[in-house]
Amino acid sequence: MIFEQVAVGPLQCNCYILGCEETREALVIDPGDEVELILPLIEKHGLRVRYLLSTHAHIDHVGDLEAMKEQTGAQALLHERDLQLYRNLPMQASWMGLPAPPATEIDNFVHQGDRISFGRHSGEVLHTPGHTPGSLCLHLAQQTGRLFAGDTLFQMGIGRTDLWGGSYSDIIMSIRECLMQLDDDTLVYPGHGPPTTIGEERLHNPFLK
User: Fold this and answer.
1) Is the pTM of this model over 0.85?
2) Domains and CATH numbers, the chain
3) Model confidence over 78-91: pLDDT tens digits?
């Protein structure tokens, strides 16, 4: 699988590009900002982006969704429970003292258990509410397994729950009952910061003690 990662925007959101080596179909996860950094990585591999998946609708994860959709023609995917948050991009921007980015139409809503395919690869959507009501992760089970965790699980941390729609009890339940059911060697790629593994977080994450 073709894999590229770039941190974008003032909050350094991790944007991930996943591509099929055979078909060149691709999935982009969390194109939150700086489309000018993301597009060259897509072009380098000659990829055709099929889907743009937002793990949740905070502005740092969806700010350049409209621009990416316009540049690639890909479908924008989001969990329906975060649609209200996405529609309130101007309010989110005002909290950060930033101009509001343009919004786009969400082409399809994704839910727990849905599969997202790009070429010969696919991942399963895991609905993990807590950081936001519609927060989700994408689990690719091939080989050792990869989990694209958005802002649900970080290295030695979890997503904040003091913003609109956040719930500490929900995020802990999502992590314990969903993510901690995965194999220990599953690689975790979070929305911010360095990667980790399920096993490392099971043993050392202070929020899971």
Assistant:
1) yes
2) 1-111 (3.60.15.10), 122-209 (3.60.15.10)
3) 999 999 999 999 99
